[in-house]
Design brief:
Layout (H helix, E strand, L loop, with lengths): L4 E2 L2 E2 L17 H29 L13 H8 L1 H31 L6 H9 L6 H11 L8 H13 L16 E5 L2 E4 L9 E5 L25 E7 L23 E6 L2 E7 L5 E4 L7 E4 L19 H26 L3 H9 L4 H12 L1 H16 L3 H6 L11 H10 L5 H31 L1
Parallel strand pairs: 5-6
Antiparallel strand pairs: 1-2, 3-4, 4-10, 6-9, 7-8, 7-10
Helix pairs in contact: 1-13, 2-3, 2-13, 3-7, 3-10, 4-7, 7-10, 8-9, 10-13, 12-13
Protein name: Sugar ABC transporter permease
Family: Belongs to the binding-protein-dependent transport system permease family.
Pfam family, one: BPD_transp_1
Amino acid sequence: MSSAVQAGGPARPEPPAGPRKSVTGTRTVLVAGFLLPALVLLGALVVYPIGYSVYRSFFDQAGTGFAGLDNYREIFTDEAIFTAVKNNAVWVVLAPTVTTALGLIFAVLTERVRWGTAFKLVVFMPMAISMLAAGIIFRLVYEQDPDRGLANAVWVGVHDTFTESSAFPRARPLPVHPLEPGGGGAFVTRAPVSAGTPVLLPLVGVAPDRMPSDARPARTPAPDPDGGITGTAWLDFTRGGGGKPNVTDPQELGLKGISVEAVKDGKVVAKARAGADGVFTLPAEADGAVLRLPAANFREAYNGVSWLGPSLVTPAIIGSYVWMWAGFAMVLIAAGLASVPRELLEQARVDGAGEWQVFRRITVPLLAPVLAVVLVTLMINVLKIFDLVYVIAPGSAQDDANVLALQLYRSSFGTAADLGVGSAIAVLLLLLVVPVMVVNIRRIRKEDRR
């Protein structure tokens, strides 16, 4: 026979001689040629900057003298940089956790409403806004002035609903007026009052445009026929001048709503409020008493919360971050929720489990891989946070809101630039990101093996 036959079947042909190829049949040299441009770019844009940053971090500010670990030591001894480290720790713990939790809640709840798609669209819309634009938006939202800042406008509105505010926070008497300080911010008459003689309580210090809109010209009342005490509380100020002190001139307005108390032997025996023309009437028990304008009449108007002050600036900025990224978390979690077997949820409900038990014992465990992806992604993201802090935090509170990425910029390009310290901060950021990336890579490989 011209060809040998192996036992059990025909002989297999020998592979042709020639250069070895990869699994896909592509020559190794050709693969290297395609990868080379990408590797060059990766080395120039990633590997070289990382290596040079590590190298530069061991030199002094001028870059000529070897500094050893001094730059790294300064990170934990310099107050501003150490504040940035602490704030980054707050960011890493708080921002991803809150964002992921809100995303989970939104994803679960929107499955149960008819307009869930529209709600998801609204929640996800902030992702289309750049960090710079979001920072400008929230810088306005957190303005201290309630007339400009939305957060304080809402806060002041709620506060004033339950706590009455004064309309005359800076009102005060002049030395020629029959009033004097009574302690605690109140004002009292210089002498006791008597029935039959109208009491004049003039004040100044209220801008005419801040007067109540329905205030009317002040007038001096007639004596009370029942023996009570009558009087007038008004703004003793005439626009353009020409008015006389302690006289209710025609152009002067009454202090509508101001509270008047009659005090005898340290006890309040009667109270009254002035009308639109400033006139008030106290019962006969007030005869011989000293009249007092309580301090509540002059309490400064509530001006809201200092959102961008030293104590709240970091939580306020984290709030803006959550506003931006909650939609991202919601979309990813909703995609994972769509793959959850519905029969497991229905079976649990049939077995008597409540909605909270189904959510805690079944939904959350099944979504654990997705939640881990979202959490790790956000952790890496917040370690690099810069834009929001730089734009939202005012100059007076920027040191209190400082984070490592912002401090890296300030140390490297500020007025007293120190590239050694800046490089050390960059290396520290890299070291903080690497463990999170390693955990993420291990999780991905574990998922692939399933």
